[in-house]
Design goal:
The protein is α+β, with helices and mostly antiparallel strands. The protein has 3 helices and 14 strands. The protein is elongated and about 105 Å long.
Length: 264
């Protein structure tokens, strides 16, 4: 029978039948796709469904493509700072008049802290210094001042809270244009962060390193400002790439690691 021979009632019934078949097909496809989708809480892959209708064909072709989701810079920053955050501490000077906040530093190994030289007053000697992390504090003292590299080392009694954790150092200086993150101590428990770009690398010579004419890189970066001087500067891979020593500048991690290894 030709469709032209159908009366109005027959035509409507045929139309309803076609709509019913389409609805059932859609429901089956939807259930199938849900069964193949990632389980809740797993973001390793995302199923992208591509639907293509071929002109003149009686079926719809559906293809499921596995894709790795794009990680935003914000997510990268959060991940990068997770391993470094436990090492970030506050230095406090105790006097007869009370406590004086000296600034940020970070634990580089058990019992040893590094900070910017500008955070340590010239008249601070012997005791009177404390390392603070949340509600935990420990007496400390200035171990050495490095005038060439603008850093100071502090020794203290390590605890489970005051430790370097899983801190890792980059083995090379960052490239210009690389995103970096400078951290500073915050009373909230999580360090404050400042995101910047590496604007350039300045080669310098550190006379206090173990080898003569040892090349030491200074990093020019917009992430180091007044409040986070003395704190770690981290790359998006989670490794420390330097320490902020003055506004806009950081001493590179390879140079810092040499100085740390000299301290027995």
């Amino acid at each position: 029978m030709d469709i032209k021979d159908l009366n109005r009632s027959q035509f409507l019934l045929l139309l309803l039948l076609i709509m019913l078949v389409c609805s059932i097909t859609t429901a089956v496809v939807t259930v199938t796709l849900l069964d193949q989708s990632p389980k809740a809480g797993i973001a390793n892959t995302v199923n992208r469904v591509i639907e293509r209708v071929i002109p003149g064909a009686t079926t719809t072709v559906i293809k499921i493509v596995k894709e790795t989701p794009t990680v935003s810079e914000g997510e990268q920053v959060v991940k990068a700072t997770e391993s470094v955050s436990p090492a970030v501490i506050k230095l406090v000077r105790k006097t007869d008049k009370g406590s004086e906040n000296l600034g940020t530093g970070f634990v580089v190994r058990d019992g040893l802290i590094v900070t910017a030289l500008k955070n340590i007053p010239g008249d601070l000697t012997g005791t009177g210094l404390e390392v603070v992390k949340g509600s935990v504090s420990s007496l400390a003292e200035v171990l050495s001042r490095d005038l060439d590299n603008n850093i100071a080392f502090i020794k203290f009694t390590a605890t489970s809270t005051l430790s370097a954790g899983s801190l890792a150092f980059s083995e090379k200086s960052p490239a210009s244009g690389q995103t970096d993150v400078a951290l500073s101590y915050s009373e909230s428990g999580n360090p404050d962060i400042m995101i910047g770009l590496v604007m350039g690398i300045i080669p310098a010579t550190a006379s206090s390193t173990s080898s003569a004419n040892q090349n030491v890189d200074l990093i020019r970066t917009g992430s180091v400002i007044g409040d986070n001087i003395g704190g770690p500067v981290v790359g998006l891979d989670g490794k420390v790439i330097g320490i902020g020593i003055s506004r806009g500048y950081a001493l590179s991690a390879p140079a810092l690691k040499i100085l740390i290894d000299q301290i027995k």
